[in-house]
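Bug report

Summary: structure tokens for Transposase differ between web form and batch submission.
Environment: batch mode, default settings.
Steps: 1) Submit the sequence below via batch. 2) Compare with the web form result.

Sequence submitted:
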Amino acid sequence: MKQLKKFKGASLHISNTPFKKTIKRGTKIKTKLDLTKDPNVRKRLKWIQHYEKHQNARLTCRYFGISPTTFYKWKNRYKKYGLEGLKDRNKRPHRVRQPQIEPELEFLIITVREKFPTWSKEKISVFIEKYLDIKVSPSTIYRVLKRNNLIERTRKLTWNFKKRKQIGKKNRTRRGLRADKPGTVLIDVKYLYWCGKTFYQFSAIDKFTRIGFAKVYSTKSSRSGKRFFQELEK
């Protein structure tokens, strides 16, 4: 009783106490909880808020059912980076391994593009699958064309082709594919059966000059297609 009388009327100051600092930190975390909508960030902020209030890591881990390793991982990231440190990081590697493509198939794609510069990657894909029986995705064709700087040039050629087409549309009657000069080549592959075996005839004909060229191969592959185009160039 004497001790109580001694301090009777005295005021209690908590301006420099750790308790007030904890209150301030807890208030800041509560404000951040109101600002963020990310459920994972909110969950981790609640861990930090509980720890700041009780100053006991084990108690916080038991309360939320998390391991000390998990708690300290996010606590340290929050201390170092703030609210951004509580966000999930992108686990995708910085450098993604590009799928490999056979040199023969890449040569074939480039050759078809140079022969038909206005064709899209989808049309090239259909052409190669139809006549060479090789499945190659449009995305793979796009990567090959981009790697060989054949994208921007093709866009310009396509635009010029469409413009010329619109200008001369009224002045001509469309009767199949026509050519005004040498260079427009039609390519086809036919099956030949001989002595119980299947052979493949690769044919090419210039629409303007009507000059034809044909070769027979035992397989319908990208290697055969490459050889055919190389011999056609000669």
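Above is the batch result. After comparison, the two runs are identical; trailing whitespace caused the diff. The first strand starts at residue 185 and ends at 194. Residues 1-23 have pLDDT under 50 and may be disordered.
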